[in-house]
Description:
The structure holds 2 protein chains of 2 kinds.
Chain A: H1 34-48, E1 55-59, H2 67-70, E2 74-77, H3 83-93, E3 98-104, H4 105-111, H5 113-122, E4 126-132, H6 167-174, E5 178-183, H7 187-199, E6 203-209, E7 225-227, H8 241-255, E8 260-267, H9 273-280, H10 302-305
Parallel strand pairs in A: 1-2, 1-3, 3-4, 4-6, 5-6, 7-8
Antiparallel strand pairs in A: 5-8
Helix pairs in contact in A: 1-7, 4-5, 5-6, 6-8
Chain B: E1 6-13, H1 18-31, E2 35-41, E3 50-58, E4 69-76, H2 95-98, E5 104-113, H3 119-124, H4 127-134, E6 137-141, H5 143-150, H6 156-167, H7 173-182, H8 185-202, E7 223-227, H9 228-238, E8 243-246, H10 253-262, E9 269-272, H11 276-288, E10 293-298, H12 299-304, H13 306-315, E11 319-325, H14 342-347, E12 356-358, H15 363-380, E13 383-389, H16 390-394, E14 396-400, H17 418-423, E15 457-459, H18 473-497, E16 501-503, E17 510-515, H19 519-531, E18 536-541, E19 543-545, H20 549-557, E20 561-566, H21 572-581, E21 588-593, H22 601-613, E22 622-625
Parallel strand pairs in B: 1-4, 4-5, 5-6, 8-9, 8-10, 10-11, 11-13, 12-13, 17-18, 17-20, 20-21
Antiparallel strand pairs in B: 1-3, 2-3, 7-14, 12-19, 16-18, 21-22
Helix pairs in contact in B: 1-7, 5-6, 5-8, 6-8, 7-8, 9-10, 9-15, 11-13, 19-22
Amino acid sequence: MSAFSAIGEDREIEQDEFTPGIEPQATWCPGCGDFSVLKALKQAMPEVGRTPDETLLCTGIGCSGKLNSYFDSYGFHTIHGRALPVARAAKVANPGVEVIAAGGDGDGYGIGGNHFMHTARENHDMTYIVFNNEIFGLTKGQTSPTSPKGHKSKTQPSGSAKAPLRPLSLSLASGASYVARTAAVNPNQAAEVVAEAIEHDGFAHIDFLTQCPTWNKDARQYVPYTDVQDSDEYDFDITDRQEAGEMMYEVESKLYEGEVLTGRFYKDDRPSYGEEKRATGEMPEQPLAERYFDEDVEWERCADELIDKHT
Amino acid sequence: MTDQELIWRIAGGSGDGIDSTSRNFAKALMRSGLDVFTHRHYPSRIRGGHTYVEVRAAEGEVRSRGDGYNVLLALGDSFARNPQEDAYYGNEELKPLTENFDDLREGGVIIYDEGLIDGEQVEEVGLHEKAEENGWHVYPVDLRAIAKEHGREVMRNNAGIGVMSTLLNFDTSYYEEIIGEVFNEEIAEANRKVIEQGADTAEEFDEHPALQMPTAEEPDAEQALVSGSDAIAYGALDAGCRFISGYPMTPWTDVFTIMSQNLPKFGGVSEQVEDEIAAASLAIGASHAGVKAMSGSSGGGFALMSEPLGLAEMTETPLVLVEAMRAGPSTGMPTKPEQADLEHVLYTSQGDSTRVVFAPGNHQECYEQIRTAFEIAYEYQIPTILIYDQKLQGELRNVDRSFFDRDPDPDAGSVLTEAEIEEAAHHNSGKFLRHEYDGEKGISPRTVPGQKGGRFLTTGNEHNPAGHISEDPENRVLQMDRRRGKFEYIREDLDEKGNQTHHGPEAAEYGIMTWGSHQDTVFEAVDRLNDAGHSVKALGVSDMMPYPVEEVSAFLESVEECLVVEMNASGQFRGLTQKELGRFGPKLSSLLKYNGNPFEPAEIVDGFESSIDGEDLAATNMKYVPAAGD
């Protein structure tokens, strides 16, 4: 029997199981988009059939990082920008665990940008939700990597001279195999996208537009929005890298012109990192974490395996 | 000069086969029954640049680099830049010869490849005058021509081995046996012919040096030739480590490479990642998920690990890091040893540091202390760090094969099984209480993701027993005291292990203290000092945190004065000792060296004698810092 009996447990799962008994009520500001991420995630979990005990949620630092406090599962609230390297190693250590990482736009696209590129490139079978509110919220309103050019804040008093980062394009170029954008104001689409992302076998990145009513009052509330899959105006193949890339460029540009486009932009069914690594022979079939609980494992000894060549 | 020992240097350019030849040579001497110890000097370049490896060999214990050397095989740098032009860096082709003049003992032997280094050049650098002055025996041989005749140019090192066999009466049978093991038959045969012709060519020389190869009876116990990096990696594997993450950086790369090459065979995984922040974070993630995991780097990369290290402290995630020091600050001297990262490793990361730090003194201690590092980390849920340096990582020495005959340690430490989780404390909402106040020895057992009923929250923020963020003052103090209170129990465990090493007569007048890789060099110096009539004993300290206060206090109480030997410019270990003990300041002086070359035993002898005689060390590569009180 597996030492991890929560993994793959077959039973009915209730959305309420993901509401913690400690801090059941989130403390985000009224009107904050973050509530929608929490709700979408709770809705998606029963949908994908995963329980709190087989799920690991790793977050970064910022308002987004509080997600861990309000979502009951195994939870690791890490440090600023580093949720992805912690999360992806947990997936390598025990592939049966459902691994989800979350953070804000500063966390994921700024300080953790290098990890974002490389985790996407490696295509770990996990989900990454970026709460994108185009601002640093918890530190009280500084310009972020996704803030529009000209954005004024206490740290850029004359307006940002920098064009915003293009998160979807960056994700595609880096190697993410599922890329979507949804918005807090569109809860139905959000829950569907989160469920799809979790079910996707590879690195699934969701750029989740979460309005900040406190520090980004000037910003749009991301309404009205258009779901590109529901619109006749947009016709592209999400499995075609070039068409996806062109669409993403348009979506990113339009956001700063005031038009909110959401939907699925890219999906590629290439093998996940675990599959690739196992194929090279450098990752065992048995999950690494299992062997510490498995009394039948014969532990290798350096004295037997490695010392001969030194004699 | 002691004729019973050989200190052989093979010098050439990076890429001239210096490393492999010296390894084969050292192993051959080991098989013949000699004790061997190597010292490696190389530049931060892929090809070319003066590099040498020293092999010290003698019958009886050899535990350090020696004083200077007595035989030079100078190949010349076949990858030299513009050898015909004067350059800022000097004539590189000649450096493997000229750079080695200073350390060659009187009566020493020089064999050089006149196929690469011509006679005119040798005249220019005044080799003959120097040879006359120092009684050196000089043998120019066209090694290149010999190599080319039977094989390829790169075999000229073995032509040199052949020359040595005649001049020094070196029996090449073990060496040729090893050649047969490392090469296919065709190449091995070519090499054997090269050796043979080298030997024949040397018959032309009428005059042979007085120095002859030391010989020994075959050893009773089978020996293994290992580096410090081998010992660390093997200790980690035997400790049950099955995950490593890293980013290349000299000199840590060796441990990372050895682990990466062997982990798949041992059912583990190695991850080379984007930077050292990721490397440490991945090790934390793997450990959190239940695997014994490690990462590491050298000073610059370790700086990037500072924040994840603090995360491991705060979340009580077991983590083992290794830090291979090289000369700093900044990029410093990438291929040169120094012991100047002690304070970096002890204190980096915000907040009160809560980690365990070991500094092994030799190869055996590398193996044992990395195993202890895993034991402590996984039992006490605390990061442990093994700090070593470029010197120890690359030095090869022979160790009894039976030393490695140990059982692996599959114990994942204070982790609960699902059956135990059912019995354990939970919040009434079902959440496992990961960070309880009242665990035995401060340890609150953990669960791992996927275990039924084990879900918990942890965070780098201060947190309550359920892992939820808390800034409550009472909780804060309880959690801090619990985490830091583990030190008391860890200290007890470490006292049982006895990581500190004492050497010399117990009732000695003077003491010498050191830490890390100079331990056995200091011990050799102490033996010589006692032989010369001094009364000295030594203590090699490995536990840097928690510090062995009682043991070091007793040592310092028993001596009149103590010289602290370390390879840095600010006396960091002496400073740590004074901080931890809060007394003995007036007894402690420092002998420091930070020019990129490790101490030789004779330097420590000189340094000690000068310190008690109050003599000036200005003319040496060392610095003496007198006692200054607390």
